[in-house]
Design a protein that fits this description.
The chain is mainly alpha-helical and about 100 residues long. The N and C termini lie far apart (about 30 Å).
């Protein structure tokens, strides 16, 4: 199996991200995703995602490749380091339904 350089870079970045900072940043996420990060109605669960997947999702919102104006606005305000910290935080939590 060949891993793309972009995916490798995302995985390495997420591994070095600051989980505590991500926990602090997650206060805004809890507005919609609740502190549990569990799926609720049309709002998807965000806990337990592999960090590289979380980063890819957030970057796709940031670049307006995924269609959700709320998430696009939130992602647009986040730096790459903040997205990586959030990925480390949510990736460290058990997946919620």
């Amino acid at each position: 199996m060949t891993v793309s350089p972009a995916l490798m870079a995302m995985t390495q970045a997420a591994a070095g991200a600051d989980r505590e900072w991500g926990q602090h940043l997650s206060a805004e996420c809890a507005t919609c995703h609740r502190t549990s990060g569990a799926r609720q109605g049309g709002i998807p669960a965000i806990t337990g995602l592999p960090p590289d997947q979380f980063i890819a999702l957030m970057l796709s919102y940031k670049e307006r490749q995924r269609d959700n104006v709320v998430m696009q606005a939130i992602a647009a305000r986040l730096s790459r380091d903040e997205i990586e910290a959030l990925a480390a935080h949510y990736g460290s939590l058990d997946a919620a339904d």
